[in-house]
Amino acid sequence: MSRDLRVGIDLRPLALESVSGVGLHVAQILDALGTRGVRFLGISDREIPRGRVPGEIPVVVRSGGGGRIRWEWNVLPAALRGIEPAPNLYHATWNHGIPRGLPFPSILTLHDLIPWKLPGAVPWPRPAILHQALYRRAVSSSASEAARIVVVSEATRADVAALLPGVASRTEVVSNALPPWFQPVGREAGAESRKRFADGGPYWLYLGGFDPRKGIDTLLGAIDEAFPDRSHAPDLVLAGSRNREAERAEALARALGVRVHFPGYIPDAELAAIFAGASLFIYPSRYEGFGIPLLFALASEVPCVVSDGGSLPEVAGDAGILFPAGDVAALARVLRRAAGDSEWLAAHAARGPARASQFRVEAMAERMLRAYERAMEGRARSS
């Protein structure tokens, strides 16, 4: 099949104030597939900040709708059908958002099914029951409409098979990738970060979102249990966009007397330095569909302590030190050893760069392109 494809693509993740892992994944698709014969036409519910989308990609902006799912129901269908000439394919990049009955095939990326699998770990708007029902309806409908479904890990593929068995045969894994712009720097480059956060001493790092699923309470509880007098506990840096959950974590840290720094969102240009300064990366999430911050730590040769929640074991491989998700006592035991066994940590850290190199943009791009082509072929056979 010719790789000269014209693809409509949902760019809403790039319009957010802070770009998350989903937005990073979308940006990589635009960059990598744009050099492989794919011409994209973006669609969004708001303007996208300058520099996030290659200049040659046009973006259709249609506001309104009242929330993500309602925009997909009330605005997106007409916007897609109004594209002239019609695209060969539409890519819904953010877990749902495929209208019914489009005149061209669609592909859906499901990053995870956490709101379905673990609804209690999601900060739903009120009324929560209504929003859970809207979410399940949107995901089920979009998955049914999709000619092909892409997931970012084997863990998410297993969740699709369990929760949406009717579409499992159309699902394939296209893992997230380490972005080429992330270039690890030497330990000496982390000196400024160590000075900023720990008076030049060591610090342990978490970087990611703040919500109940992320397990920050597990981490703080484990620090409290592992170092009751705090004498051997390094400073802890919890980095990520500030929100109400971050404020709760800060209050808990104060109540426990744990030395914690909350620097907020870390821009891309500063990521390499903050990882270079860390002596340990801790990812205590109860469940992940992938876990992109883990790739940054692995590539930076920082030892990684991660939960066994969802995809994290398959991303970390033999470079990760695992503990059962949500188990405060187990994490405390790991952290006590980490504080006193540098050789153990170094052995795991040394495996990190090779592990991260298995998640290359080139491999992601080729797998995504094959998924596009299979979606086109599937529609051709059914028509």
Summarize model confidence as the mean pLDDT.
94
Return the CATH topology of the largest domain.
Rossmann fold
Q: So what's the overall shape?
A: globular
Q: How many domains make up the 3D coordinates?
A: 2
* CATH architecture term of the largest domain: 3-Layer(aba) Sandwich
Structural class: alpha/beta
Name the CATH superfamily classification of the largest domain: Glycogen Phosphorylase B
Query: Which value, in Å, is the CA radius of gyration?
Result: 21 Å
Under CATH at level 1, the class of the largest domain stands as: Alpha Beta
Strand order of the largest sheet: 3-2-1-4-5-6-7
Count of strand segments: 13
How far do the termini sit from each other?
17 Å
Order of helix and strand elements from N to C terminus: EHEEHHEEHHEHEHEHEHEHEHEHEHHHH
Helix content: 40-55%
Largest sheet: 7 strands, parallel
- Beta content comes to 15-25%
Individual helix count: 16
Q: Which residue ranges are poorly predicted, with pLDDT under 50 across at least 5 consecutive positions?
A: none
List keywords for this structure.
2 domains, alpha/beta, 16 helices, globular, 383 residues, Rossmann fold, six-stranded parallel β-sheet
Task: Give the arrangement of secondary structure elements.
Blueprint: E1 5-10, H1 21-34, E2 38-44, E3 59-61, H2 68-74, H3 76-81, E4 89-92, E5 106-110, H4 114-117, H5 128-145, E6 148-151, H6 154-163, E7 171-173, H7 191-198, E8 203-207, H8 216-226, E9 235-239, H9 244-256, E10 260-264, H10 268-276, E11 278-283, H11 292-299, E12 304-307, H12 312-316, E13 320-323, H13 328-340, H14 342-350, H15 352-356, H16 361-382
Parallel strand pairs: 1-2, 1-4, 2-3, 4-5, 5-6, 6-7, 8-9, 8-11, 9-10, 11-12, 12-13
Helix pairs in contact: 1-16, 8-9, 8-13
